[in-house]
Write a structure and sequence with these properties.
The chain is built from five helices and six strands, in the order H-H-H-E-E-E-H-E-H-E-E. With 147 residues, the chain is an alpha+beta fold. The chain has one domain: Aminopeptidase (3-Layer(aba) Sandwich). Strands 1-2-3 form a three-stranded antiparallel β-sheet. The chain has a three-stranded antiparallel β-sheet with strand order 4-6-5, covered by helices on one side. Bound molecules: coenzyme A (COA).
């Protein structure tokens, strides 16, 4: 799901995840999953096949990914497998994850995204706002302290 979230866009060359693993990206986003602040939701078919996931975790000034804003703000990632996109699965995952973040008393969430994508439109419609950029990605933040 992480590779679905941050790997090549559909139609782009797909070299597979080995370079990516060597760069430590999966380790940063997933190793030791279950530490304080880690929360995930998944979407499954009636047959329990995994079709999507959204999750967040806290990162550090010295070790963080593309959508980092500060050490108090979890960064989320989301992916829906291509065949199940454009049916509302992504929105449902995010609404659920945002509710979990509020329950856990986080004041904000962040993420990074390519601009002018389906994801970017979805995040904006849920209340995320652009607060910066990281290389070619927009960094977005959602304030959870407002009703
Ligand atoms: C971004 C992503 C998670 C969105 O997931 P999704 O399940 O397609 O999201 P939704 O279905 O809720 O919404 C996407 C679009 O489908 C539309 N849609 C939702 N239900 C629909 C339906 N029943 N019929 C037609 N369209 C529908 C939405 O209006 C939205 O339209 P838009 O792109 O024109 O704004 C998915 O595209 C993805 O995995 N992308 C690759 C990974 C990625 O970019 N991850 C983000 C970086 S962390």
């Amino acid at each position: 799901m992480l590779y679905e979230a941050a790997g090549p866009e559909p139609g782009e060359p797909d070299p597979g995840p080995s370079d990516w693993i060597a760069e430590g990206i999966p380790a940063l986003y997933l190793d030791g999953w279950g530490r304080s602040g880690d929360i995930a939701v998944v979407a499954e078919t009636a047959e329990r096949a995994l079709v999507g996931a959204a999750w967040f975790r806290l990162y550090f000034e010295h070790a963080h990914g593309w959508g980092f804003v500060d050490e108090q703000t979890p960064e989320l990632a989301i992916a829906v497998v291509e065949a199940f996109r454009r049916r509302g699965v992504g929105r449902a995952l995010l609404e659920n994850l945002i509710a979990r973040a509020r329950e856990a008393r986080f004041g904000a969430l962040s993420l990074s995204t390519l601009e002018n994508t389906s994801g970017a439109r979805l995040y904006e419609s849920l209340g995320f706002r652009r607060v910066g950029e990281f290389e070619e990605l927009a960094v977005m933040r959602m304030d959870l302290t407002q009703a």
